[in-house]
Design goal:
15 helices; EC 2.7.7.7; Rossmann fold; 3'-5' exonuclease activity; Zinc Finger, Delta Prime, domain 3; 5-stranded parallel beta sheet; elongated; DNA-directed DNA polymerase; 8% strand; P-loop_NTPase; alpha/beta; 2 domains; 335 residues
Length: 335
């Protein structure tokens, strides 16, 4: 697993707590996607399970380390929803708890890594509560989450909360530059579109995804000129529609920033002419209304089972066209 330079400080802080006997048996790690929380947890797990620790580092040579490196340590348990499912039910929790109460097969620590704590069903979370409160000796739970508010309060209260911040923007830009994934302006844009998470920014900058965003921006520019918002349907109606709507909403919000004289805080630094175009063609009230509509649309697409994606997008785009018509915006040829 890759290691990232911005993880060094939190790793040392957390390991120091465990080394000093102050580490909590249940760590709740809150991080935005793309900040490397999985690598941090793996590093901590390696140290906890290592039988010949070298200060704050795992030795890499003991039998436990070799098993971890091979990916088959019997006392390292990874819990995740089954492929194609979004939730983690009670049965896997019961199975791992039963295993934890037996002796560690390697005679050392036992570690459970649950990357998506929000995926726990209520029954699964409740099944975990008692074990979190009174865990077997030398047992550690490492729970990851994106939105702590979605967890049961009783679950959160049994954990030590740690927020993994996104690294400093300049440090992230230096790292992205070393990855050679884009020019400085593109890197800054990708980073800001992902709340400063460098790994997520690097993934966005990969040619196929970056081209998808570029296509959306190009069609939006032409659609605004012709007030033909339905032209956006082909570039929105894809399986990653939630991400594409995030790109669209970010441009609309950037236009609101532009109107307020806050161009330095614009996310889409590589699309300033398009941001300015939106800012001049739509009033602040219209921009706010459109953003709210699109966010509601995105929520429906993510939460309503079996929703007709194309129909929902078409309705929203037609509503946008009607807003142009009812506001009496002049066609660009008459400006």
């Amino acid at each position: 697993m890759n290691w990232y330079p911005w993880l060094n400080a939190p790793y040392r802080q957390l390991i120091a707590q465990y080394a000093g006997g102050r580490g909590h048996h249940a760590l709740l790690l809150h991080a935005a996607a793309g900040n490397g929380d999985d690598a941090l947890v793996y590093g901590i797990s390696r140290w906890l399970i290592c039988q010949q620790r070298n200060g704050e580092k795992s030795c890499g040579t003991c039998h436990s380390c070799r098993l971890m490196l091979a990916g088959n340590h019997p006392d390292y348990h990874v819990l995740a929803p089954e492929k194609g499912k979004s939730s983690l039910g009670i049965e896997p929790i019961r199975q791992v708890i039963e295993t934890l109460y037996s002796h560690a097969q390697q005679g050392g620590a036992k570690v459970v890594w649950l990357a998506q704590a929000e995926a726990l069903t209520e029954a699964a979370a409740n099944a975990l509560l008692k074990t979190l409160e009174e865990p077997p000796a030398n047992t550690y739970f490492l729970l990851g989450c994106r939105e702590p508010s979605r967890l049961l309060a009783t679950l959160r209260s049994r954990c030590f909360y740690w927020h993994l911040n996104s690294p400093d923007e300049q440090l992230s830009l230096q790292w992205l530059n070393r990855q050679a994934v884009g020019n400085p302006t593109d890197c800054l844009t990708a980073l800001r579109l992902h709340d400063g998470a460098p790994i997520a920014a690097e993934q966005l900058l990969q040619p196929e995804r970056w081209q998808q965003r570029s296509a959306l921006c190009g069609v939006l520019h032409d659609a605004l000129l012709g007030q033909d918002m339905l032209a956006l349907l082909p570039v929105l109606n894809h399986d990653n529609v939630a991400e594409r709507l995030h790109w669209l909403c970010s441009l609309l919000i950037d236009a609101m920033k532009w109107q307020q004289g806050a161009a330095g805080f614009v996310l889409n630094q590589d699309r300033l002419p398009l941001v300015q175009q939106l800012a001049t063609r739509l009033s602040a009230a219209s921009l706010q209304h459109i953003v709210q509509q699109w966010l509601h649309c995105r929520h429906q697409l993510l939460s309503v089972v079996g929703v007709n994606r194309e129909l929902l997008l078409t309705e929203q785009l037609l509503s946008w066209e009607q807003m142009f018509a009812s506001a009496g915006y002049s066609h660009p040829h008459s400006l």
